[in-house]
């Protein structure tokens, strides 16, 4: 036992630990830098870069590290690069680790929900802003456990450097054991030293995971306070505001009646002669052989609310995404307030960064079926963030506007909540507030209630109804809610087989369809909804 304790504090072995740590640091830092480059190349749109990175990965992941160590130490001098044993081992470790770390980076980036990236694009964020504000913060959280693992692996792999005579802990332990013949005590002490080192890495990993944990409770001890990156807790909100979100049990919700004929007439008169906000001309879009939009034409006037109906798979989402240039059309044109989004004046497509700016300028807001909120941000940050990052609004002003909009959708009391702590209806209301924040001229809503439980549908419809009736916002809404379309829409456009089958005033089309396909659709959908349309 005394020998074991003696070895634990023997300077010869302690210096070995120092060299092990240097080697691990070289391997890990080099691996992180090279891994980042490799992951970026693999994720790049340029096939040549991606192919080079994959080739590198195949070679360095598919050959033993020990061969790579020997190569770096013995073969590189023939190519004119002579390195010390420590540097050669560090280089080999870094080159090998990089392939695994690149996979960690890549899976972290790919692990972020694609819907959030689409939402970022729709909000006018450039690819760089999306990477920095949406993907990276979430990818880092996904990557920490795997990176901790890689750090431990690098530390253990550093022992292979003994093959090229690097004086690290394993080599020194072997030398000591050979000279003292006290194999058990020496290797036991060496094992304990490795355990302390890997334990320290695990502790750092756990601390990082905790620091990045969005659900971390408020700090209770001084140690908690040392951890940075805590999410701010929203200030309590007056009960009067909080009460807005709840519906009393004894007050059953009933859908409001459709507008009176005079109300409809007043709206028709108000819209008469209004300029076109969205013009879609001869739009074609196919996915491979599958033709989704086949020469579709339609117009939405400023201030008009148009309900887009059609069977499942008829291309409603594709149309909305193409209007906002989230999809490239194969041919045809989309004009937003008279301007073609996504193209230069000479007809050439804009770069992704320029498209993002054009989107922000065009003022098209979008609400998605699955909400697509940024899951690492609170409700308030979801609304305020894009105002700061895209529209350069000062933080205080952005938060103030976000607070107002959350109050408007009845969610001021949930401003500090993460999306996963909100119900589906609440998430969709936050998504609507986020889309409204930059004051869009046109709002596209892609089946905003179809992912919601039936009892949550009305709270979202109430908000949209308010936008149509009180704010006079131009809206194009893909929906299966016939009663809602009847009540809110000025006009209904029915699409099937990639083009407009029938369109007309909501009242007329929903109650007296002319085309058999529309009549069939309304019969099926009407039978599914309680009470049908009327
Ligand atoms: N990225 C894609 N790649 C291949 N096919 C796609 C893609 N996006 C949509 N589609 C196909 O295009 C067709 C139209 O899809 P879209 O989502 O636009 O229909 P929809 O009318 O919105 O349907 P739903 O009412 O069910 O949401 C579908 O057959 C769908 O499978």
TrEMBL record:
Q: How would you describe this protein's topology in the membrane?
A: Multi-pass membrane protein; Peripheral membrane protein
Q: Domain of life of the organism in this record?
A: Bacteria
Matching entries from InterPro entries are given as:
AA_ABC_transptr_permease_3TM (IPR010065), AAA+_ATPase (IPR003593), ABC_transporter-like_ATP-bd (IPR003439), ABC_transporter-like_CS (IPR017871), MetI-like (IPR000515), MetI-like_sf (IPR035906), MetN_ABC_transporter-like (IPR050086), P-loop_NTPase (IPR027417)
Q: Which PROSITE patterns match?
A: ABC_TM1, ABC_TRANSPORTER_1, ABC_TRANSPORTER_2
**Which residue ranges does the record assign to the ABC transmembrane type-1 domain?**
13-205
Q: Which UniProt keywords apply?
A: ATP-binding, Cell membrane, Membrane, Nucleotide-binding, Transmembrane, Transmembrane helix, Transport
UniProt KW Plastid keyword: no
Q: Where in the cell is it found?
A: Cell membrane
- Note whether Transmembrane occurs among the keywords: yes
Report what the protein is called. Amino acid ABC transporter permease/ATP-binding protein
- What organism does this protein naturally occur in? Streptomyces chiangmaiensis
């Amino acid at each position: 036992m005394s020998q074991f304790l003696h070895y634990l504090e023997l300077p010869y072995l302690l210096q070995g630990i120092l060299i092990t740590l240097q080697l691990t640091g070289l391997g890990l830092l080099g691996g992180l830098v090279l891994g980042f480059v490799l992951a970026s190349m693999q994720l790049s749109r340029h096939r040549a870069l991606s192919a080079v990175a994959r080739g590198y990965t195949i070679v360095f992941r598919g050959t033993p590290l020990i061969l790579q160590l020997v190569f770096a130490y013995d073969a590189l001098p023939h190519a004119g690069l002579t390195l010390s044993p420590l540097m050669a081992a560090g280089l080999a470790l870094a080159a090998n680790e990089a392939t695994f770390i690149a996979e960690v980076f890549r899976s972290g980036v790919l692990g972020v929900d694609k819907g959030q990236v689409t939402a970022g694009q729709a909000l006018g964020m450039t690819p760089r802003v999306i990477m920095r504000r949406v993907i990276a913060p979430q990818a880092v959280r996904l990557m920490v456990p795997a990176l901790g693992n890689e750090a431990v692996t690098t530390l253990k792999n550093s022992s292979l450097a003994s093959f090229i005579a690097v004086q690290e802990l394993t080599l020194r332990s072997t030398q000591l054991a050979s000279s003292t013949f006290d194999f058990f005590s020496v290797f036991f002490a060496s094992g304990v030293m490795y355990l302390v080192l890997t334990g320290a890495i695990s502790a750092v990993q756990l601390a990082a995971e905790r620091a990045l944990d969005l659900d971390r409770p408020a700090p209770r001890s001084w140690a908690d306070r040392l951890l940075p990156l805590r999410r701010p807790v929203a200030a309590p909100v007056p009960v009067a505001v909080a009460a807005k979100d709840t519906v009393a049990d004894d007050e059953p919700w009933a859908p409001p009646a459709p507008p009176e004929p005079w109300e409809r007439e007043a709206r028709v008169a108000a819209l008469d002669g209004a300029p076109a906000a969205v013009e879609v001309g001869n739009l074609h879009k196919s996915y491979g052989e599958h033709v989704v939009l086949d020469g579709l034409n339609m117009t939405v006037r400023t201030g008009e609310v148009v309900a887009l109906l059609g069977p499942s798979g008829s291309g409603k989402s594709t149309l909305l995404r193409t209007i906002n240039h989230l999809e490239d059309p194969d041919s045809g044109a989309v004009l937003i307030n008279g301007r073609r989004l996504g193209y230069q004046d000479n007809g050439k497509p804009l770069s992704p960064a320029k498209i993002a700016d054009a989107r922000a300028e065009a003022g098209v807001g979008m609400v998605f079926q699955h909400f697509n909120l940024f899951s690492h941000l609170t409700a308030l940050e979801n609304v305020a963030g894009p105002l700061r990052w895209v529209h350069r609004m000062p933080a205080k002003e952005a938060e103030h506007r976000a607070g107002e909009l959350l109050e408007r959708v009845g969610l001021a009391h949930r401003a500090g909540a993460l999306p996963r702590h909100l119900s589906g209806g609440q998430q969709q209301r936050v998504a609507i507030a986020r889309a409204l924040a930059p004051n869009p001229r046109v709002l596209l809503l892609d089946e905003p209630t179809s992912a919601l439980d039936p009892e949550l549908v009305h709270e979202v419809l109430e908000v949209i109804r308010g936008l149509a009736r009180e704010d006079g916002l131009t809206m194009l809404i893909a929906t299966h809610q016939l009663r809602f379309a009847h009540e809110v829409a000025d006009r209904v456009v029915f699409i099937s087989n990639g083009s407009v089958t029938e369109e007309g005033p909501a009242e007329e089309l929903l109650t007296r369809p002319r085309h058999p396909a529309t009549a069939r659709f309304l019969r099926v959908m009407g039978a599914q909804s309680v009470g049908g349309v009327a």
